[in-house]
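Subject: design request, 119 residues
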């Protein structure tokens, strides 16, 4: 079996199509019950379910789980914060805050320029 390495951490991911919850648990160092909980909290994490409601994760799911684990356990995000980070909502909030700051700065500079022109 060929192994593919994840650039983020040097643990390898076997190059196969589907992984059981036990395999993903070992690959990502996360307990099975935590994976099931994360499925409820992160809509983008949705493994294929087959016979008897068994979960089968794909490679992109494993990478997403590693990213979620990093956000929660290493970077200190809350579940809500990690969800926003993954969906890009925090980037939108950051850019709106930045644009508000820029517009406020521009108006203040225009006021300073007006005062300087009077003298």
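Subject: RE: design request

Done. Sequence follows.
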């Amino acid at each position: 079996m060929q192994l593919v390495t994840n650039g983020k951490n040097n643990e390898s991911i076997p190059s196969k199509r589907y992984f059981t919850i036990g395999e993903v648990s070992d690959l990502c160092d996360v307990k099975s019950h935590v994976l099931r909980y994360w499925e409820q909290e992160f809509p983008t994490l949705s493994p294929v379910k087959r016979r008897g409601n068994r979960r089968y994760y794909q490679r992109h799911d494993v990478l997403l789980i590693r990213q979620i684990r990093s956000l929660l356990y290493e970077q200190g995000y809350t579940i809500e914060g990690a969800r926003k980070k993954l969906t890009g909502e925090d980037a939108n909030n950051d850019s709106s805050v930045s644009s508000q700051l820029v517009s406020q700065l521009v108006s203040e500079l225009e006021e300073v320029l007006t005062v300087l022109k009077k003298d």
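The radius of gyration is 22 Å.
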